[in-house]
Design a protein that fits this description.
Oligomer: single chain
Structural class: alpha+beta
Number of domains: 2
Helix content: 25-40%
Largest sheet: 14 strands, mixed
């Protein structure tokens, strides 16, 4: 920790203190085994800070302490925390040796072995890196724990000669899983990082698992790859984040995160001091107990909330399932396994300014089976408030078995997004029909006005407009300004026609000289041509899922030659050579040689690097567009 910036160390300590808050609810005298995860998550920062050490060790030494498991995956999402505590504090390799008593440490080992013995299967470890069990967060949590537990225990006398229930040894498990994750990092760096892209909760689970690999893997090559991968992760988040609110398209957005502060990531705020907002210390298990800190190019990109310019970002990330690779009862390793297609991807597209970020996902309608298809989010977030946003979602006729699969189909040209309800059956249940697109308007927006068939919005230094192209719509309830998002003040426009397209436009107020009336007049003057299911607006021709959309008469390319393309991150698809730049700060990440990954901070600027600042132009009606 001594090499970390002093102001970051202060935030780390504040986060650790916040992480102990719920420990006050736990007492050894009346606790039960189900509380074990609470003792771990809140006891870990307490031990680091020197609090309640005797009582904590007493619990971890006792029969009440249990390493929990998941009947589907073995090591669960909770397993990441159990492994982290042992990795930090075990007396052999932990950087914080001595905080756990010898008996508590042995009890951890006993519990970790019990889960590994019953659930770690060598046949699964030998599968390809594009095979995935269940959702990505569970897969990475479970398999990273399998690797690290095998690493921790394989040379201990009590476990070295033991065999898992499938007959494999921990040494065999370790070598196979080490090779798996080494290749996993290479392939994902080349073809896109996360399936659960931008998810306010699920991607965070995956990142926590990768922190464990970065901090505890004994293989220096694997550790280096994990470190490089986290740099890329935070560079991607930074260029999509407006102050502390992540914009751009997302997968698996639910349980209220569509509306609340879930778009703000605790770890991001901790690392970068909640850029443009007031930092509020919260418990963050992985980041607050790690010596990881991003390089200057990423820090600069995250912290500069006003000087990044105006820019398009696009990324090809995984999702589509390989032909015949979907989940099925016939898989020998269980019905939750599926195989992703590494050559097909989801195009994550966005347009960012200092006042808003608007984004959507580009999909090939031929590929209905997509591991990232659940509860997608698209829309626009605004600088004016962390909760200020306009977002799209689909309301089904029946929520039973509804997982929001491929809810809408969209096309975007910079600051104009056109979408319509899709929600195909299958993969959605037939009971979901009819399903209607609806548009969410946050109560923290400044103004919402209806005029000439458009819904106009003011939010800080931005204007926006929404148009339901065909049919009518209903407000449920009517929009009303409020300082907070509450249970009863979420306003939606719900479309009457199932397949009507909707247009969303966003601009900085400065694009129209801060004249809201001029913006409204310019927008309403634009011709809208909609016939036979085809919408033509501005430079966009939108066919919905029936045919590829066009911009300026050219078919939208869902598989561009660059896997990452923005003023800050550039990488040719499947190359493994990633250039990151913000201003004059640079970083080069080279995953091309599996045995020698290279990270170069402060690499000389060449033409291979992106420009380091955005200079794109939005569409401004009644003005030169480009």
């Amino acid at each position: 920790m001594q090499n970390l910036p002093a102001e970051y160390v202060e935030r780390l300590r504040a986060s650790l203190v916040a992480g102990t808050g719920r420990l006050s609810k736990l007492r050894y005298s009346d606790t039960k085994s189900a509380d074990s995860i609470g003792w771990v998550r809140h006891g870990m920062p307490s031990l680091i800070l020197g609090g309640r050490a005797d009582e904590l060790n007493r619990f971890f030494e006792s029969d009440k302490f249990v390493v929990s498991s998941n009947p589907k995956f073995g090591f669960s999402l909770f397993g990441v925390s159990f492994v982290r505590m042992y990795g930090l504090m075990n007396r052999r390799t932990g950087p914080m040796k001595g905080l756990l008593s010898r008996k508590a440490e042995e009890n951890f080992e006993k519990g970790l072995w019990a889960v590994a013995k019953a659930n770690s299967k060598l046949a699964e470890a030998k599968r390809g890196v594009w095979d995935m069990e269940g959702s990505e967060n569970h897969h990475l949590a479970s398999k990273s724990c399998d690797l690290l537990v095998a690493q921790f225990l394989r040379k201990l006398p009590a476990y070295a000669d033991q065999k898992c229930d499938d007959g494999s040894t921990l040494a065999e498990q370790y070598e196979t899983r080490r090779a798996y994750f080494s290749k996993w990092f290479d392939e994902r760096a080349k073809r896109g990082q996360f399936v659960e892209a931008g998810s306010p909760s699920y991607q965070g689970d995956s990142v926590s698992a990768l922190f464990n690999l970065r901090d505890f893997a004994q293989d220096p090559v694997l550790r280096r790859k994990a470190d490089m991968y986290l740099d890329l992760t935070y560079a991607v988040i930074a260029e999509e984040t407006l102050r502390t609110t992540r914009g751009g398209p997302k997968s698996r957005v639910k349980v209220g995160h569509e509306y609340d502060g879930g778009f703000c990531d605790r770890g991001y705020d901790l690392l970068f001091n909640a850029p443009g907002r007031a930092f509020v210390p919260l418990g963050v298990g992985a980041q607050s107990t790690s010596n990881y800190y991003p390089p200057p190019a990423v820090v600069n990109l995250a912290k500069d909330t006003t000087g990044r310019g105006v820019y398009v970002f696009s990324k090809r990330w995984p999702g589509p399932v390989a032909q015949g690779g979907g989940k099925g009862a016939e898989d020998p390793d269980g019905p939750l396994w599926r195989t992703l297609d590494p050559e097909r991807s989801v195009l994550r597209y966005g347009f960012a300014t200092p006042s808003y970020v608007i984004g959507s996902a580009g999909l090939d309608p031929a590929w209905l089976d997509d591991a990232s298809m659940g509860f997608r989010w698209q829309g626009v977030v605004f600088d004016s408030d962390p909760l200020a946003r306009i977002g799209f979602e689909v309301k089904p006729a029946n929520t039973k078995d509804w997982h929001g699969f491929n809810p809408f189909f969209s096309v975007q040209d910079r600051n104009i997004l056109i979408t319509q309800q899709w929600a195909p059956v299958p993969p959605n249940p037939r009971s979901a029909l009819p399903a209607h697109l609806r548009v969410y308007f946050s109560p923290t927006l400044d103004e919402v006005q209806e005029e000439a068939g458009w819904i106009f919005v003011k939010a800080g230094g931005a204007f926006a407009a929404v148009k339901v192209v065909a049919g009518s719509y209903q407000w449920t309830p009517a929009w009303k300004r409020a300082e907070r998002v509450g249970k009863d003040n979420k306003a939606f426009v719900t479309l009457d026609a199932e397949s009507a397209p909707v247009i969303l436009i966003a601009n900085q107020a400065a694009d129209y000289d801060h004249d809201f009336s001029a913006f409204k007049a310019a927008v309403t003057a634009q011709p809208i041509r909609y016939a036979d299911g085809v919408l033509r607006f501005a430079a966009i021709t939108f066919y919905g899922p029936s045919s590829p959309s066009q911009v300026d008469g050219r078919t939208v390319n869902l598989a561009p030659s660059r896997g990452y393309d923005s003023p800050f991150i550039r990488c040719d698809w499947n190359s493994g050579l990633i250039y990151i730049r913000k201003g004059n700060d640079t970083e080069l990440l080279d995953f091309r040689d599996p045995d020698n990954p290279l990270k170069v901070v402060g690499a000389p600027i060449t033409s291979a690097f992106p420009p380091g600042v955005g200079a794109d132009q939005p569409i401004i009606f009644n003005k030169a567009a480009r």
